[in-house]
């Protein structure tokens, strides 16, 4: 006998992600899922963001990594709350891991939660965590041909940061072809050209983030 | 590596549906996994054999249907298949496209006794 199922394989993850999001909504915490390849600059972006915005918003960080607490240690040194999730070789964070991390955070005292996903442009795209916005970093040395290699990732992003822009004179990276491909796949995406090392171009990212944080607060009034 | 959690979900959904139908055995699980979903059949098979031991799905075969990637031009509405790394519309050459198929990731049905 055949039984029709027609159920999304990731429906269990999606259900937990929705639960996480309603908890975050309740506390008015803007939550950002930061994704990229390994070494594209996720931790540097988070450190820059903390140093620029920590006086203006109460920031917390969930650090996802296959192993070690190196990134969480760097973030803690900046004086913000950080929770480390080690996936023990797993290639992405999922909603369940995020739920456990949320249980270890003082949600009453957070305005902005940055989640650093595991470095990978494939699987994190499929696993919602409960975030409000998805941010992808793509660094120049990775090449401008990535949008069509990882279309699921790029078509689901709210913001794409082209990082290591200070290396542009040294590399053959066609900014126009990259941005056309990303905006072609995803017409509402915001694209910023930045260097998390020199700070170049980060003002746009900071003001977008502040706007979103404010909007979140006003929507959930606290 | 994400095939492990994918396979766990497949098994748990299939067992839940079979249980609701009071089935004794699951003989086949029909999966629809789009080309873009990045899921490798062999990995799923491997994990499934391991995870389904001691369940009523133990001997079940997995059938994979892979819908190909299909795109629609947001400029002129032409529907087409992408050519490797060139996703521009073959008709108007605009890169403004929408993915209409290839991201599927669901269980179509199960066959039970």
Please outline what is shown here.
With 222 residues, chain A is α/β, with parallel strands linked by helices.
Question: How does the SSE layout of this entry go?
Answer:
The complex is a heterodimer of chains A (222) and B (113).
Chain A: E1 2-8, H1 11-26, E2 30-35, H2 42-53, E3 59-65, H3 70-77, E4 81-86, H4 95-102, E5 112-116, E6 133-139, H5 146-149, H6 151-155, E7 159-163, H7 175-185, E8 190-193, H8 202-220
Parallel strand pairs in A: 2-5, 2-6, 3-4, 3-5, 6-7, 7-8
Chain B: H1 3-20, E1 26-33, H2 41-52, E2 61-65, E3 70-73, E4 79-80, E5 97-101, E6 105-112
Parallel strand pairs in B: 1-2
Antiparallel strand pairs in B: 1-6, 3-4, 3-5
Helix pairs in contact in B: 1-2
Q: Could you characterize what this model shows?
A:
The complex is a heterodimer of chains A (222) and B (113). With 222 residues, chain A is an alpha/beta fold. Chain A is 37% helix and 21% strand. Chain A is built from 8 helices and 8 strands; from the N terminus they run βαβαβαβαββααβαβα. Chain A has helices spanning 11-26, 42-53, 70-77, 95-102, 146-149, 151-155, 175-185, 202-220; strands at 2-8, 30-35, 59-65, 81-86, 112-116, 133-139, 159-163, 190-193. Chain B has a domain at 3-68 and 102-112: hypothetical protein PF0899 fold (2-Layer Sandwich), CATH 3.30.2320.50. Helix content of chain B is 27%, strand content 28%. Chain B contains 2 helices and 6 strands, in the order H-E-H-E-E-E-E-E. A 3-stranded mixed sheet of chain B has the order 2-1-6, with helices on one face. A 3-stranded antiparallel sheet of chain B has the order 4-3-5, with no helix packed on it. In chain B, helix 1 crosses helix 2 (41-52). The model of chain B has no long low-confidence stretch (mean pLDDT 94).
């Amino acid at each position: 006998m055949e039984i029709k199922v027609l159920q999304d394989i990731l429906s269990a993850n999606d259900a937990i992600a929705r639960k996480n999001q309603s908890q975050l909504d309740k506390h008015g915490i803007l939550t950002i899922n930061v994704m990229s390849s390994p070494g594209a600059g996720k931790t540097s972006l988070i450190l820059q963001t903390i140093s620029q915005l920590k006086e203006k918003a109460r920031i917390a960080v969930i650090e996802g990594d296959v192993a070690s607490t190196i990134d969480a240690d760097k973030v803690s040194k900046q004086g913000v709350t950080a929770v480390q999730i080690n996936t023990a070789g797993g290639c992405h964070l999922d909603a369940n891991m995020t739920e456990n991390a949320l249980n270890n955070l003082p949600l009453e005292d957070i305005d902005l939660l940055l989640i650093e996903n595991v470095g990978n442009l494939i699987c994190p795209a499929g696993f919602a965590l409960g975030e409000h916005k998805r941010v992808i970093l793509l660094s120049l040395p990775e090449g401008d041909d990535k949008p069509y290699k990882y279309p699921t990732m790029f078509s689901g992003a709210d913001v794409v940061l082209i990082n290591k822009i200070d290396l542009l004179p040294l590399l053959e990276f066609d900014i126009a072809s990259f941005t056309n491909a990303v905006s072609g796949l995803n017409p509402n995406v915001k694209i910023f050209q930045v260097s998390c090392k020199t700070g170049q171009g980060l003002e746009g990212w900071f003001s977008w983030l502040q706007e979103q944080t404010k909007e979140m607060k006003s929507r959930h009034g606290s | 590596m994400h095939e492990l959690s994918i396979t766990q979900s497949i098994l748990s959904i299939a067992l839940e549906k079979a249980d609701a139908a009071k089935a004794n055995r699951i003989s086949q699980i029909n999966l629809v996994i789009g080309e873009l979903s990045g899921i490798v059949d062999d990995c799923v098979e491997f994990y499934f054999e391991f995870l389904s031991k001691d369940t009523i799905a133990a001997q079940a075969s997995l059938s994979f249907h892979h819908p190909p990637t299909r795109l629609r031009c947001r400029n002129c509405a032409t529907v087409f298949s992408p050519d490797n790394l060139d996703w521009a519309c073959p008709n108007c050459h605009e890169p403004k496209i929408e993915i209409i198929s290839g991201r599927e990731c669901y269980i179509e049905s199960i066959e039970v006794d």
